[in-house]
Amino acid sequence: MKPWALFSHSVGMLARNFGDMLRVFLVPTLLIAALFATFFKMTGLWGILQWGVMTPLPENSGLSGPLFLVAMFSLLIGMWSVVSWHRFVLLEEMPQGWLPGLEGGRVMAYFGRSVQIALVLLCMMIPVLLMVLLVTTLLSGAGAAVLQLANLPIAIFVTYLVLRLSVILPAAALGADMGLREAWNSTGNAFGDLLGLAAILVAAQYAAQFAAEALAASPSLAFGVSLLVSAALALLNISLLTTLYGHYVEGRPV
Predict the structure, then answer these.
(1) Inter-residue contact 67 to 57 (CB < 8 Å)
(2) pLDDT tens digits for 42-63?
(3) Residue 76: how many CA atoms within 13 Å on its side-chain side?
């Protein structure tokens, strides 16, 4: 079953290279955490995280702009590690020490491709959002569980679209010349594979959220568990993109 093979290969990739994964992601993740912690300390907003709940910034605080800059800088730091992971797996660029190699041009290309994908998805998702609104309206009194179940096919379809377009991201990390059309065409014969993989990913996300809620005995603990679950899912998604590029573009086995 190809969808499960793709999923298990991506999980196995993380498990087999756990030490190298730490070398690639640990320091950038700590830098991002320190950046946000410093921002909240310096602005006197450390109490914005109370009981594990993120509250909005005070109105007219003038901090929305600086927070946006911090978020964008953190995003670039995160992409630095993601690019290094793609290059480690696909080009066998081994991490040296505890600081991943910095490919500034590749990071900016990765950012640019991510913006392209976001804009294309935004256009493609207009009818999907209208459908979600319609389903939400029709089932407004049916309860949260029924509403989530009804939106499940939509979530799977959106994930499928993301998977098909996101093949362009590892290409950007490697410096390969690939546009959105080429990325879409490279997975043109994999409709069933990627739709099945999308279903597995959505199921994994639902299961992870359920486990996080079940394990959290307090709001603050729930926030910590949610962060860990989000980090695990992010690593899985990054590994999946690497697997998809290696298999569908480079022809590697899974």
Answers:
(1) yes
(2) 776 655 555 445 555 555 555 6
(3) 15
